[in-house]
Design goal:
Layout (H helix, E strand, L loop, with lengths): L39 H4 L12 E2 L5 E2 H14 L3 H11 L6 H12 L2 H11 L4 H21 L3 H12 L6 H10 L3 H10 L9 H11 L10 H15 L27 E6 L6 E6 L5 E6 L3 E7 L5 E8 L5 E6 L5 E6 L4 E5 L5 E5 L6 E6 L5 E6 L4 E5 L4 E5 L10 E3 L5 E7 L2 E6 L4 E6 L4 E6 L5 E6 L3 E6 L5 E7 L10 E4 L5 E4 L6 E5 L5 E5 L6 E6 L7 E5 L4 E5 L5 H10 L9 E2 L3
Parallel strand pairs: 3-31
Antiparallel strand pairs: 1-2, 3-30, 4-5, 5-6, 6-7, 8-9, 9-10, 10-11, 12-13, 13-14, 14-15, 16-17, 17-18, 18-19, 20-21, 21-22, 22-23, 24-25, 25-26, 26-27, 28-29, 29-30
Helix pairs in contact: 2-3, 4-5, 4-10, 5-6, 6-7, 6-10
């Protein structure tokens, strides 16, 4: 290695907040007091969960039974199980809504806007701003419906005498006033523009009311789903070894991944290189793996649907070791960087070299792609940075205050930031738009770095056998540190990986691969198997359970899940300790 320098469910019906039978449909079977305009006692505010308010359920006694039942009832109606929801209300004696709220919702559904506003005020909400906002929403719908039937004078009176005095949303009041000039065109525009209330969207008004009024009054339609999702997310986020898709989470038991979800078993050994393997990288689509070697070649490997890897092309043409190979944003091309030689661009399908990039008198030692794939960048032996378009025309070349060769270089996905090592212990974050520079100053010599997928973090490998994670949004700051791997002479590269890049993996000079939990910095697993320093690792961006490592022993190891059963365990003992799983070897034949 180089040294350092609607097929819905059968019984599911469409959700209909406005059509719930639990309070304002004609065929509701829910028990309750009859509501009429003369029973003021029923209409006045009263506790919304009067039945069983003090009773709790659950082992910890923190769940109010009345709230629990109401949320389940709400979920049943949302799923279209109207009869079941009504039966639950009747059997439990806990109504989803009290009589006043039922009346209010029914009035909204029926378009009785004056009555609904009066009922809203009778409910007695303590938040006056919420009441005003809800009143405005109701009156706006009244205005639109009057406009729809061309009752212009009535619409104007509503706007002038009812909405304007509320003294809120003045901008909207002015928009509605201007609509009186051409009502038909305004109605047409309103009904076809996202975010505007249609004259027929009373259900939309009900949905908006949910956001304005207390949840204890109108329980949000997806409240149960929200509670369950939050519970699953908390379980997922607290799982140290979590490395599965959200679709694998289940409600039937508490979620807890084990170490078996971390790639830790050698699934395949790739042996086509004839000397130390210095670099490797999965393609963005996860269909290929590329590697480069001291043997002056690079290889493109193809990954089948079942995860088996085979040689696709050996890229021959360099006359010195190939220190890096990088995928274009569309995965159709790769760049290879010869050690102080030239940069070559290759076509992935054919394996042909389509262009060479060089500059008289100086040579590249690092390279990268423009985020749009229309140009390349390179760190040169004279400490300068050069940029070319794909045809080799030089676009920019500058040196700046650099005191060492640019051993690593990258550009963020938006093309704004150019990231490079500019001094022994300093990384430059150069804003290409504002032409200003921010610096990350480390305590020791930097050997390599890598950017996270979201370009918000940078992983920095140091000479002192420490890896540091920096947040580079705003002023750079250290987020976490990772220790345990060995590094004294060679360039060792690390990577992000796993579910939402929740893990950090690194090579090591002791022939092992190390994996840490990104957030906690805890070392999770060490993977033995190689017979030489592990120079580089890469985690598949599409297969959470595939990790690749490149070594001075001339091999690439593909790591997968540890699914060894008793029979394989016996085979492992027979085969000896050189492997920690069932091995499939590939030498390119």
């Amino acid at each position: 290695m180089g040294v350092v320098e609607d097929t819905e469910p059968p019984l599911k019906r469409a959700k209909r907040l406005a059509d719930e039978p639990n309070g304002f449909s004609a065929n509701s079977s829910v028990r309750g007091s009859s509501v009429n305009s003369n029973s003021l006692g029923d209409l006045m505010a009263r506790p919304l969960t009067s039945q069983g308010d003090d009773e709790t359920i659950g082992s910890k006694g923190v769940i109010r039974k009345s709230e629990f039942v109401r949320i389940i009832t709400r979920a049943l109606y949302s799923l279209g199980y109207d009869k079941t929801g009504a039966m639950l209300e009747e059997e439990s004696g806990i109504s989803l809504h009290n009589s006043t709220i039922k009346l209010f919702l029914q009035q909204v559904k029926d378009g009785k806007w004056d009555q609904s506003v009066k009922t809203l005020h009778r409910i007695g909400f303590p938040d006056e701003k919420a009441v005003k906002a809800a009143s405005f929403l109701l009156l706006e719908q009244k205005f639109l419906e009057l406009l729809k039937v061309e009752k212009i004078a009535d619409a104007l009176r509503t706007l002038r005498n009812e909405m304007a005095p509320l003294r809120i949303n003045t901008k909207r009041v002015h928009e509605l006033a201007s609509s009186l000039i051409s009502p038909s065109s305004f109605i047409s525009h309103t009904t076809s523009t996202p975010g505007k209330e249609s004259v027929n969207s009373r259900s939309k008004v009900l949905e908006e009311l949910q956001t304005l009024l207390p949840a204890s009054v109108i329980i949000p339609e997806k409240r149960l789903e929200c509670l369950v999702e939050n519970s699953l997310h908390i379980q997922r986020d607290s799982c140290v070894f979590h490395n599965t898709l959200d679709s694998d989470l289940s409600l039937y038991s508490d979620h807890q991944c084990g170490k078996h979800q971390i790639p830790s078993q050698t699934a395949q050994i790739l042996e086509s290189h004839t000397d130390e393997v210095w670099f490797l990288q999965f393609s963005h689509n996860g269909k290929y793996l590329a590697s480069s070697s001291k043997d002056q070649t690079a290889i493109i490997w193809e990954i089948s649907a079942d995860g088996h890897i085979s040689l696709k092309h050996t890229l021959v043409g360099h006359h010195k070791p190939v220190i890096a190979i990088l995928w274009s944003p569309d995965d159709r091309q790769v760049l290879t960087c010869g050690a102080e030689e030239v940069i070559r661009r290759w076509d992935v399908d054919s394996g042909d070299c389509v262009h060479m990039y060089e500059k008289g008198g100086i040579s590249p030692i690092s390279c990268g792609w423009y985020p749009d794939g229309q140009g390349i960048i390179a760190g040169m032996t004279d400490r300068s940075i050069c940029m070319w378009d794909l045809d080799g025309r030089e676009k920019e070349c500058w040196k700046g205050q650099r005191t060492q060769k640019v051993s690593d270089i990258a550009m963020t996905d938006d093309g704004k930031w150019l990231v490079s090592v500019c001094k022994d212990s300093v990384i430059s974050l150069f804003d290409r738009e504002a032409t200003v520079e921010r610096l990350i100053e480390e305590e020791d010599m930097i050997t390599s770095f890598s950017l996270s997928n979201d370009n918000k973090y940078i992983l920095v490998n140091l000479l002192n056998q420490e890896i540091r994670l920096w947040n580079i949004e705003g002023d750079p700051k250290i987020v976490s540190r990772y220790k345990g791997h060995k590094r004294s002479r060679f360039i060792i590269r690390s990577c992000f990986g796993g579910y939402k890049q929740a893990f950090i993996a690194s090579g090591s000079e002791d022939s092992q691969v190390y994996i840490w939990h990104r957030s906690t910095g805890k070392l999770i697993v060490e993977l033995p198997g190689h017979a030489g320093a592990v120079n580089c690792v890469s985690w598949s961006p599409t297969n959470l359970h595939m990790l690749a490592s490149a070594s001075d022993d001339g091999t690439i190891r593909i790591w997968g899940l540890d699914r060894i059963n008793q029979q394989n365990q016996k085979k492992k003992l027979v085969q000896g300790s050189s492997s920690n799983g069932v091995i499939h070897r590939c030498n390119g034949n």
